[in-house]
Specification:
The protein is of the alpha+beta class. The chain has one domain: Gcn5-related N-acetyltransferase (GNAT) (Aminopeptidase), CATH 3.40.630. 36% of the residues lie in helices and 32% in strands. The chain has 5 helices and 6 strands. The protein has a 6-stranded mixed beta sheet with strand order 1-2-3-4-6-5. A hairpin with a 2-residue loop joins strand 5 and strand 6. The longest helix is centred in the first third of the chain and has 15 residues. It is globular and about 35 Å long. It starts with 5 loop residues before the first helix and ends with a strand.
């Protein structure tokens, strides 16, 4: 990902959240998400010299960004997939799997023997996607607060 990709990545992330988490995350939280705010936050992070993450983008034949993934170290000795989003109109087209394969290659190149990720418990489509890719729930659970609503998350792990 380059700095020039940030606005497109933010658009994919925000529209991806609103599409994927409708009915799971409180609508008030989703309604407050804006591409502009996400772009500003992402640009600030992108400029940090100590950034420990790798941001990958998928582009179409015209060079337009159609997907984004972010990985880096977890709090353990594993790598962690922090985010993977595809333009909602292209969900199911294979872009997510292609990005996931690239994430695995980058994780191996960084010396990670396994990769972790967190999925909202009720996000069944995402859970099926990662399970088909070989990930398995490893017993880790946590909860995050979204506008006063506690939502559970399940940790998945893949040995690379």
């Amino acid at each position: 990902m380059t700095e020039a990709d940030v606005a497109a990545v933010s658009e994919i992330r925000v529209t991806g959240w609103k599409a994927a988490y409708a009915g799971i995350v409180p609508q008030s939280y989703l309604d407050r998400m804006t591409v502009e705010a996400d772009t500003d936050q992402r640009l600030r992070y992108f400029a940090r010299p100590d950034k420990a993450t790798v941001d990958l983008v998928a582009v179409d034949s015209r060079g337009a960004v159609v997907g984004w993934a972010c990985l880096g170290p977890s709090r353990t000795d594993a790598g962690e997939l922090y985010a993977l989003y595809v333009r909602p109109s292209l969900t199911g087209s294979g872009i997510g799997r292609t990005l996931l394969d690239a994430v695995h290659a980058h994780a191996l190149a960084r010396g990670f023997g396994s990769l972790l990720l967190w999925v909202l418990t009720d996000h069944h489509r995402a859970r099926r996607f990662y399970e088909r890719a070989g990930y398995a729930a490893d017993g880790g659970v946590q909860a995050d607060d979204y506008d006063g609503v506690s939502l559970g998350e399940v940790r998945y792990r893949l040995v690379l």
